[in-house]
Design a protein that fits this description.
Elements (H helix, E strand, L loop, with lengths): L2 H24 L3 H30 L4 E4 L10 E4 L1 H24 L4 H19 L3 H19 L5 H32 L4 H10 L3 H22 L8 H7 L2 H11 L2 H16 L1 H30 L4 H20 L4 H32 L15 H14 L6 H13 L3 H20 L25 H19 L1 H11 L14 H21 L2 H11 L5 H22 L1
Antiparallel strand pairs: 1-2
Helix pairs in contact: 1-2, 1-4, 2-3, 2-4, 3-4, 3-10, 3-11, 3-14, 3-18, 4-5, 4-11, 5-6, 5-10, 6-8, 6-9, 6-22, 7-11, 8-11, 8-22, 9-10, 9-13, 10-14, 11-12, 12-13, 12-17, 12-22, 13-14, 13-16, 13-17, 14-15, 14-16, 14-18, 14-19, 15-18, 16-17, 16-18, 17-20
Family: Belongs to the CPA3 antiporters (TC 2.A.63) subunit D family.
Keywords: Cell membrane, Membrane, Transmembrane, Transmembrane helix
Organism: Gracilinema caldarium
Length: 567
C-alpha cells in the first residue's frame, strides 16, 4: 500500500469508527449492537496505531507531501506527514484509546458519546497532518465543535455553561484566525504552507511583509486561545473540570497541545525560509516564551488555591502547557523535541490523575479536597495510580515528569525562565500534597462533611486497566526517557538528544529532595489559617466572559503592535 494511502487511512479510520457507532445506535439486537460498538472502537482507535507503526520507517528523517486525490493545488487539500505528525498522532491515539476504554466502565457509554469522541480524534490526527491554512481552520473547528458537545455531555447545568463559555471564546478566536487566513491568501494567493513560503521568498514586497505579519499575529493569538496560555487561558479550568472524566483526560492531555505544534509546523517553515519573517517573529516567540513561563507559575498558584479536585487538576493543565510553550518558543529542533516529550508525558500523567481522581470523587460523592478522607478504601488500583500520577507531575525520579522537566530546565538553565519554572515546580509539589489529602485517614478531631468511612469499592475491568496502563506508562517512559528523547529528536531533525544520558545522578536526587522539602513547606503555609484566607480569596476570582474577550483583544493588540514597531 502506498504511503499516501496509509496516511489517509489512519486519518479517516476514526470517522469510520464513528459511523459504526451511529449504526449501532439503530440496532435493536443488543448482542449485535455490542459487536458493532467493539468494532467501532477497534477500527477508530486501535487500528490507526498499527498503521502508525507501519508509517514510522517512512517518516524517520523524511516526510511525505501530497494533495488528497491529486487535486489541483488551488483547490486540493494539502497534507504533509512528517516526524512531528507521527509524534502528535501517536500521542493522540494512545491517550484517546485508553480514555475511551475507561469510559466503557465509568461512562458515558452511549453510542453518541463514542461517535463524537471519534470525530474529535479524527480532527486531532487531521490537524497533525494539515499543510494548508484553510484545512487547518476546518480541523480546528471540528475539534472545537466536538469538544463543546463532549464537555456538556454530563448533562449538568454547570457543564452546559462551561461548554457555552468555551464555545463563545473559541468561536471568537476562530473568526480572528479566519481573518488571518484571508489576509495571507489575499497577499500570496495560496493557502498551502509551501505555496505561501514560496511566494514570500520569491515575490514579496516590504509592504506585504507587514500585512503578512499582522495576519500571522491573528493566527498566533487565535491558536493561543486553544492552547490556553496567559492571558487567554480563562475558559479552560471550568470546561475541563465540568467535562466527563474521560474527556477531561483527552482535553487536558492532548487537545490543548496539538494546535500549538500544528502552528509551529507553519510558522517555523516561514521563519526558516524568509529572513524578514524570522526577524519579526523571533520577538513574537520571545513574548510567547515569556507568556508560557509566566503561565506555569500563575496557573499553579491558582491550582494551589482550589478546593475542588478536578478544577485543581485543570489549572495544572494550564501550568504544564506553560512548560511546553516555554520550550516550544525557543524554536530549535532540540527544544521542540523537549516540548513534545513534556506534552506526551503530561498526556500520560494528567490522564492518570483525571481518571483516578474522577473515579474516587464519584465514589465519595464530592469533589472537595477539604471534605473527603479515607479514599484509599476505594481500592489499591485507584490509590496507587493517583500517587504515581502525583509523583510524575511533581518530577520525582524515575517517573516520566522528572525527565521531561529536566530537559526543559536544561534549555533555560541560567536564565530567569529557569527560576520561574523552578518556583512553579515547588507549587506543583505543594498542590499534589493538598490533593493527596483525600486519601489520608481521618483525624479523630477533624470535622469532615463527606466522610468516606465505607466508600464504594471501585470495580470494572476497563477502568482498572486504564489506570494501570497509564501508571505503567508513567514509569516506563521515565526509565526509557533517553531512548524516547532520541526518537523524538530524530523525528524532528535534532542532532541532539533533549534528555541527558546521565539523567538519574546523585545531584539530581539531591535537587529532588530539596524540591519536595520546599513543596511540603509551601503546603504547610497554604493550609495555615492565613494561607487558607489567601487561597480562598484567590479561588473566588473566577474569569468572566468579558474578561476573556478583553484578554484576547489585549494579546492581539500587543503582538500586532510589536510587528508594526519592529518592522
Amino acid at each position: 500500500m502506498k504511503s499516501e494511502t496509509l496516511i489517509l487511512v489512519q486519518i479517516l479510520l476514526p470517522l469510520v469508527g464513528a459511523v459504526l457507532f451511529f449504526i449501532a445506535k439503530l440496532m435493536k439486537n443488543q448482542n449485535l449492537r455490542r459487536i458493532v460498538e467493539v468494532a467501532g472502537g477497534i477500527v477508530g482507535l486501535f487500528l490507526p496505531l498499527v498503521i502508525l507503526m507501519l508509517l514510522y520507517p517512512m517518516v524517520n528523517k523524511s516526510s511525505i507531501r501530497f494533495f488528497v486525490g491529486n487535486q489541483n493545488p488551488l483547490i486540493g487539500i494539502a497534507l504533509h506527514f512528517d516526524g512531528m505528525s507521527w509524534l502528535l498522532s501517536i500521542m493522540g491515539f494512545i491517550s484517546a484509546s485508553i480514555a475511551w476504554l475507561y469510559s466503557r466502565t465509568a461512562g458515558p457509554k452511549s453510542q453518541e458519546f463514542s461517535a463524537l469522541f471519534l470525530i474529535q480524534t479524527f480532527a486531532l490526527t487531521a490537524t497533525a497532518s494539515s499543510a494548508d491554512l484553510f484545512n487547518l481552520f476546518v480541523c480546528f473547528e471540528i475539534l472545537g465543535i466536538a469538544s463543546y458537545a463532549l464537555t456538556a455531555f454530563s448533562g449538568k447545568g454547570r457543564a452546559y455553561m462551561a461548554a457555552f463559555s468555551y464555545m463563545a471564546v473559541s468561536s471568537t478566536a476562530m473568526a480572528i484566525f479566519l481573518l488571518g487566513v484571508f489576509g495571507i491568501y489575499r497577499i500570496t494567493g495560496s493557502l498551502s504552507y509551501d505555496g505561501i513560503a514560496r511566494y514570500i521568498t520569491e515575490v514579496y514586497s516590504e509592504g506585504q511583509i507587514v500585512g503578512i505579519g499582522l495576519s500571522l499575529v491573528c493566527i498566533v493569538v487565535a491558536t493561543a486561545v486553544r492552547v490556553a496560555i496567559l492571558p487567554v487561558y480563562g475558559w479552560l479550568p471550568e470546561a475541563h473540570a465540568s467535562a466527563p472524566h474521560a474527556i477531561s483526560a483527552v482535553l487536558s492531555g492532548v487537545l490543548i497541545k496539538v494546535p500549538l505544534f500544528a502552528l509551529g509546523r507553519f510558522l517555523f517553515l516561514l521563519m526558516s525560509n524568509v529572513s524578514a519573517i524570522d526577524i519579526i517573529f523571533k520577538e513574537v516567540l520571545d513574548v510567547l516564551k515569556f507568556s508560557g513561563t509566566l503561565t506555569a507559575l500563575v496557573a499553579v498558584i491558582f491550582a494551589l488555591s482550589q478546593k475542588e479536585a478536578k478544577r485543581l487538576l485543570a489549572y495544572h493543565s494550564v501550568s504544564q502547557i506553560g512548560y511546553v510553550v516555554s520550550a516550544w518558543a525557543i524554536a530549535s529542533p532540540v527544544a521542540i523535541a523537549a516540548a513534545w516529550m513534556h506534552a506526551f508525558y503530561h498526556a500520560l500523567f494528567k490522564g492518570l490523575l483525571f481518571l483516578s481522581i474522577g473515579c474516587v470523587t464519584d465514589a465519595a460523592g464530592s469533589k472537595d479536597v477539604y471534605t473527603i478522607r479515607n479514599a484509599y478504601k476505594t481500592g489499591v488500583v485507584p490509590t496507587v495510580s493517583f500517587f504515581i500520577g502525583a509523583l510524575s507531575i511533581s518530577a520525582f525520579p524515575p517517573f516520566n515528569g522528572f525527565a521531561s522537566k529536566a530537559a526543559i530546565s536544561y534549555l533555560h538553565k541560567g536564565s530567569w525562565e529557569y527560576v520561574i519554572l523552578s518556583l512553579a515546580s515547588i507549587g506543583t509539589v505543594a498542590s499534589m500534597f493538598k490533593l493527596s489529602r483525600i486519601f489520608w485517614p481521618i483525624k479523630s478531631k477533624e470535622k469532615i462533611e463527606t466522610f468516606t468511612d465505607n466508600p464504594i469499592r471501585i470495580t470494572g475491568f476497563w477502568l482498572k486497566f486504564s489506570l494501570l496502563f497509564f501508571s505503567i506508562a508513567c514509569l516506563m517512559t521515565g526509565l526509557f526517557a533517553p531512548q524516547i528523547g532520541a526518537l523524538a529528536g530524530s523525528l524532528v531533525g535534532s542532532q541532539q538528544n533533549p534528555v541527558s544520558g546521565k539523567l538519574y545522578t546523585f545531584n539530581s536526587l539531591q535537587g529532588t529532595i530539596l524540591l519536595f522539602v520546599q513543596g511540603i513547606a509551601l503546603y504547610l503555609m497554604v493550609t495555615s489559617p492565613l494561607g487558607k484566607r489567601i487561597t480562598h480569596s484567590i479561588e473566588a476570582r473566577r474569569p468572566s466572559f468579558a474578561g476573556l474577550l478583553f484578554a484576547f483583544a489585549l494579546g492581539l493588540g500587543m503582538l500586532g503592535g510589536l510587528v508594526l514597531l519592529r518592522h
